[in-house]
Amino acid sequence: MAPSAPTDYHPVVLDRPGLQALIDVLVADGRRVIGPTVRDGAVIYEELTQIGELPGGWGEDQGPGHYRLRRRDDDLLFGYAVGPDSWKRFLFPPVSTTWQAEVSRDGVEVAPPSEVPRYAFIGVRACELAAIAVQDRVFVQTSYPDRDYAARREQALFVAVNCSSPATTCFCPSMGSGPRVGSGHDLALTEIPDAAGSRFLVEIGSERGAAIAARLATRDAAPADREAAAAVWSGAAAAISRALPSDGLKNVLVHNLEHPRWDTVAARCLACANCTMVCPTCFCADFREAGSLSPDHAEQHRTWASCFAVDHTQLHGGSMRWTTRSRYRQWLTHKLATWYDQFGTSGCVGCGRCIAWCPVGIDITEEVSAIRATDGLTRLPAGAAP
Ligand code: SF4
Ligand code: SF4
């Protein structure tokens, strides 16, 4: 499933017409090419066939509860960070049919799963590849793999693009997930500004990527190309100041389940679930059997769900988490602490989406800092924590 490890491929350079040729090759191979584009005041991911559909010359300003597109003073095609959308929408769709059954005289026939699209994703950031690796652990590296996710993931091809212009909400370095692409890609592009707008240093991450690169008009990367790309990588890393130090964090959180900060944040939180919808790793879903007026047809639908919904933990007699305090605490402590117990990793990749898209500007890094700041004073007595 994961692209095979890079071998001794040397970086090559692609110009802008070459980027269009890359898209053409992917389309000719029968892939649906999904990439960034501007719609409704944000950069989102949609099917595209032309580089003119990319967000050329657009960047964004982001902050807690704030996201606004802005015009850049150059014409970079990938000069934005991340928007509200994520690749999760394509690998784990917000609404899907998990099965359909027809009843006949011969019994019940369950329809085979419908064919999944062969995607090629263009513009995938390092933190987003890390998020997909997190979802792989949830959906595939488990005793009960999710067939639909596994099929979509298996077929997808990843053309990553290194970040040049992180947002102030980004904190991937402290989560070990960026800003430079390290694994999980077939091809990794670095956009280098030049007189023609930009060119791309292309690093090859898999045999599949090498086969595609071989069909394009590229040239070997010169020292000047490598230096220019390195300047993009170091500039992006230097631009990120927000951090969420993870050392000892699990212990801090599980020993502070009665910290007063949970009340403070609950007084602001609207329990709107935006943070879980934009998060590229959140994976909760509702499964509902949908009947029809016809007695011989039934199907089951899966839709994204959120731990911020009061009925998410509905059991006989009521919800287990009926206060906003308990739901926010569940979200944060799962993501940053108990996720390790379940999946051996953090549930956060530091993309910052939940900060920008929280309507009241709640900042996960700030909440953790506040709890850490008084950790020694507020821990539960020994034996009281899980
Ligand atoms: S933290 Fe913000 S985005 Fe998340 S549920 Fe609360 S108000 Fe909504
Ligand atoms: S918790 Fe927030 S910062 Fe972390 S991966 Fe999810 S949306 Fe991104």
Helix content: 25-40%
Q: Hey, roughly how much beta strand do the residues contain?
A: 15-25%
The stretches of 5 or more residues where confidence is low (pLDDT under 50) are none
Biggest beta sheet attributes: 8 strands, mixed
Provide an overview of this structure.
There is one protein chain. With 386 residues, the protein is of the alpha+beta class. It has 2 domains: 12-238, no CATH class; 249-378, no CATH class. It is 32% helix and 23% strand. It is built from 14 helices and 16 strands. It has helices at residues 16-28, 88-91, 126-139, 147-155, 172-175, 207-213, 223-238, 249-254, 261-268, 274-278, 324-343, 353-356, 364-373, 375-378; strands at 12-14, 32-39, 42-47, 58-63, 66-71, 95-104, 107-110, 119-124, 157-161, 187-194, 197-204, 219-220, 285-290, 297-304, 314-315, 318-319. The strands form 4 sheets. It has an 8-stranded mixed sheet, with helices on both faces. Strands 7-6-14-13 form a 4-stranded antiparallel sheet, with no helix packed on it. Strands 4-5 form a two-stranded antiparallel sheet. Strand 13 (285-290) and strand 14 form a beta hairpin. Helix 9 packs across helix 11. The longest helix is centred in the last third of the chain and has 20 residues, at 324-343. The protein starts with 11 loop residues before the first strand and ends in an 8-residue tail after the last helix. The relative contact order is 0.16. The mean pLDDT is 93. The structure holds iron/sulfur cluster (SF4) (2 copies). Residues 269-275, 308, 358-360, 362 line the site of one iron/sulfur cluster.
